[in-house]
Amino acid sequence: MNLLTTSIRKVLLFLVEHMKVVVGFYIIIQLLILVTIPISYTSDSLNYYKLAQQSIAAQSFYPAPQHLYEDYIIAPLFVNILVSVLSIYNSVLSIGILNICANVFQLFFVYKLAEKMFNINAAKTVVILYVFYLNSLGFIVMNLTELVFNCFVLGSIFFFLKGTKKSYILAGLLAGAAIGVRPIGWVLLIIYLMIGIRKAFKSQKDKKPFLILTGTAFFIILFGGSTYLSFGNFIFTSTNGPVNILIGASDQATGAFNAYVFNKGNSGYINNSEQKTFYEKEEIWKKQALDWILLHPIKWISLFPKKIVHIFAWDDITISHLFDSGRWNLYRVLKEMYVSKSVRNILLGFSVYEKVLFILVQVIHHLYYYFVIWMFFKSLSKKLLAKEGVIVSIAFILIGLFMNLITFGDARFKYPYIIFILVLISPKIYEIMFKNNLT
Questions:
Q1: Torsion of CA 183, 185, 187, 189, to 10 degrees
Q2: Is the dihedral of CA 42, 273, 61, 214 positive or negative?
Q3: Could you tell me if 418 and 424 are in contact, meaning their C-beta atoms sit under 8 angstroms apart?
Q4: Closest by alpha carbon to 296, among 253, 338, 261?
Q5: Rounded to 5 degrees, what are φ and ψ at 240?
Q6: I need a surface site. Which of 109, 164, 317, 409 has the fewest CB within 10 A?
Q7: Contact 23, 107 (CB under 8 A)
Q8: What are residue 123's phi and psi, to 5 degrees?
Q9: Per-domain residue ranges for the chain?
Q10: Of 194, 191, 250, 228, which Cα lies nearest the Cα of 393?
Q11: d(CA 40, CA 143)
């Protein structure tokens, strides 16, 4: 065991000391994934792609006039980024390149945050931790909001921690951009306001943090105003909140995503829905969800543990898409084995080699994922919690998780939190693996 531990430490030490080479290989691997793995969008990935193509066809930014009668407006800033990218070269490869750029920027901000919050050793360590977290690679062949959203969030916190007037305005602008991609970006503004109020009470002269509001307001007015001119409605973020809340607050709620509540006869069903605007549907679903919660508060809260399980129990967010566009994932494999009591029916269409590789990657990745979670709790200490960047990061995780619990549980929801956790555990990992060896 000591020999194995020593070998692992030496390998990791080598990787940390040659961090730039590791990053170079990481970028090459992403490019190879993009050109070798067939890209086939499904679910949300396909929806974002279709919305962008519809907007391009209408020679409009999103939302276009034809989207007035959709069920909701979703990730407007992200879809408009897709519109811009696809307008240059209309191919899924363009989206793949966007994903690679976002992944590299996210890695950069992870590095800078660890350096800002801790030291250069933690920064080097978190780069290796990030590279080993395979879900970031899987996003390359998908078309989801996570990478772009995280770039805005991490960038916002980085500029916030710099503490200058200009950086506060930039932090606010990026927080506004995060809100434009996913409503959970509001968590950043809540945290900044809490810190700003505390600083204002502590020192009457320190009003600089409130410049963040200026940056955020500027972005919202600019982006919302542009959608108002082209669409007739002041839209600056997603309007699917009531839909997601209703999924987790109905007689059909299970704690995970399911669309049963929208079937005919259930509370989410709207007769002749195609004749109603997105904001009319939003009001109906909002009322249905609120009424159900008020009538069943205990049942609603009792779903929270199930939602936590659906968020954190497993971590195949994107990895299966590196194999066969996600038709088989870890959850489906385990479910099929449980139902059929046989391994013959799993991973149909895979060769023996592919089956072994799929299972091996999944097992190794999940061991790494559980290790990261365990190290997070092990790393918590008064010394760690004394740092402002750590407080912001943990507050984002906790408040964001609470917002998730209001809706439903899904493994994707935790991706931003895991990226924060990688930063938070980096000094502890360095201390355990590299202390007195890394210069």
A1: -120
A2: negative
A3: no
A4: 253
A5: -90, 10
A6: 164
A7: yes
A8: -65, -45
A9: 2-434
A10: 191
A11: 10
